[in-house]
């Protein structure tokens, strides 16, 4: 598996599937329930057509833009994906370094296997921090103090995970959530000895026998004690956090004005990658509704289902400021570690440039609704369809 042979997110997914134990791959790849939302995320992107525009000089295409005031090299950032050590012992610090080299942002997951201050030490660009609110108020205060000291600029509050999701692929694999090191998981790892060695010991010269356990403990501590997020808590966070405040997990336009009135600067349209509520709408289907409701008072971002640079252009045409990409870089981290993430980002960047060139947009500002056509609603796939065949294109 040479990274130079990977030319898309789909290629990275196949490489990851070959390298990871099946149970671990499914943790990353699976959705909730019958995985309908997981599939709809892709189907809904597929029914949007791009409209090439002729007689435009596209010798120079500029992908730079800003995200909440931070300049970035392209309208794409790396989404928060928990416990990256499942993919590689390089984990979240490697993702932060890759994002910095690419000139884009990384939203460090609340379920990171590495402490937020350690990830921040590896970063060379601005970071978001994904916050899962805890029932213990003092624990929230201490976490905010930690990420503030570490230099995080933007706080991204996830509001769509009040309870643990129900992912049947994990249950069939006897994997609990959060992923607990167990004899069954270790036995599965015997089929992938290189992965097992890397997961347990890392790849550095000095092996750390406790590194995997510490990573798991950090991850479990972050997500085992989650709670519903209320308007009162958003108001408290707005008073407490001085930087940009983002809410992630919005699927209804009518809720947006109140969120903005509470002081929210950014809205992430997200269904958690189809991993929480099965049957929730595809994010691209509700994006325009949320953008209209925001009315320019907050920046709107899209998460879930993005696999191609063309998807990025489609989302921007419907009003998104930028998109967040998750599974593709996790597949790439599994396929090739930090270099794999570098490769995946560049593949997506080049796809964005090609898409912009073909539709005649020489800058991000020129991407608008005139460049797309929306087709009929996607057919609803029979739940018996193998989701592994259709979840990634």
Please tell me about this protein's structure.
The chain has helices spanning 9-19, 22-29, 36-46, 91-102, 116-122, 137-150, 168-172, 183-189, 193-201, 211-223, 231-240, 256-261, 283-294, 309-317, 327-359, and strands spanning 48-50, 65-67, 70-72, 76-78, 106-108, 127-131, 154-158, 245-250, 266-269, 299-303, 322-325, 372-374. By secondary structure, it is α/β, with parallel strands linked by helices. The strands form three sheets. Strands 4-11-10-9-8-7-6-5 form an eight-stranded parallel beta sheet. Helix 4 (91-102) runs parallel beside helix 15, helix 5 runs parallel beside helix 6 (137-150) and helix 14 packs across helix 15 (327-359). The radius of gyration is 20 Å and the shape is globular.
